[in-house]
Amino acid sequence: MTVKRIAFFENAAKAAAAGARTRLSAEAAECGLAVDPENPDAVVVLGGDGTMLAAVHRFPGVPLLGFNLGSLGFLSAVEEPSFGDALKALAEGRFTLSRRTALEVRGARALNEVVISRGVSGHVATLDLEVDGKPATRFSADGLVVATPTGSTAYSLAAGGPILMPESESFVLTPICPHALSSRPLVVRDTARVVVRARGRGDAAPLSVFADGAPAGTLADGDAVEIVKSAATVPLVELEGYNPYKVLARKLGWSGSSVR
Q1: How would DSSP label each residue in 5-68?
Q2: Are residues 109 and 63 in the same domain?
Q3: What CATH number is attached to the domain comprising 179?
Q4: Total-model pTM
Q5: Cα-based angle 59, 234, 253 (whole degrees, multiple of 5)
Q6: For the chain, what is the domain count?
């Protein structure tokens, strides 16, 4: 793939974003990259992982390269000292595309995760889980996170789930604050059809469903939601020499890591 035109997409709430965009526009021109917001070959995202997720929905199917202006940023893996070098690598074709698996729920797509949450309700969420038509378990928890490998380092990780590598072809189902010590994250293949049904809500407020943080409906007592692999993937730019383990070691502060 050849990149000749790029667009910038930034988090306007970040004070550094406007200055970074101005500086990088000049550097892009020096690299022979034209800035074309309407028809880009790739999008350079300035911000954190939240900005990356917004860009996924703003530019469906367009390769994204994340420049981190946030505090953590697993998706925005390029740090500020390397911004100029990253633009040059993009212009010279020194990259590959990682086509990341996404989830589909009620017509909405999620790169990171689908979350079923009790929200501000004081009532526990009782959720029956079915995988490929087979009853699996019942979770009593504050909610459930269904995450892709890309999203396994987001909410699912914070809830105690495992890290999945991008090529693992799986999803992880992680209960949020489960009410039983036996409730543990469950890893399933990414071709699985996952159905979650709300139980025991009575007159309690319905559960909320979110796709990458955006509302995707509610679940009243007896209601079910189906979560499956999306037919569309999300292309992320991985620059030459990209090492996902190095990113994890840096972002998570792994001590004693041999990854350089």
Answers
A1: EEEEEE-TTSHHHHHHHHHHHHHHHHTT-EE-SSS-SEEEEEE-HHHHHHHHHHSTTS-EEEEE
A2: no
A3: 2.60.200.30
A4: 0.92
A5: 110
A6: 2
Active site residue ranges: 49
Distance separating alpha carbons of residues 170 and 53, to the nearest angstrom? 20
pLDDT confidence band for 259 (50 / 70 / 90): low
Read off the CATH number of the domain in which 14 is found.
3.40.50.10330
Q: String of b and e for 4-29 (b: at least 16 CB within 10 Å)?
A: eebbbbbbeebeebeebbeebeebbe
CA distance 59 to 39: 10
Distance CA 209, CA 40 (A): 32
Which residues does 122 contact at the CB level (< 8 Å), separation at least 6?
none
Which residues in the chain belong to E strands, given as ranges? 5-10, 34-35, 42-47, 64-68, 95-100, 103-105, 108-110, 113-117, 125-131, 134-141, 143-147, 170-176, 186-189, 194-199, 207-211, 214-219, 224-229, 234-239
Q: Using CA atoms, how far apart are residues 8 and 29, in angstroms rounded to an integer?
A: 13
Contacts of 181 (CB under 8 A, 6+ apart): none
Q: 86 and 76 share a domain?
A: yes
Find the domain containing 191 and state its range. Answer: 103-229
User: pLDDT tens-digit profile of 17-76?
Assistant: 888 999 999 999 999 999 999 999 999 999 989 999 999 999 999 999 999 987 777 888
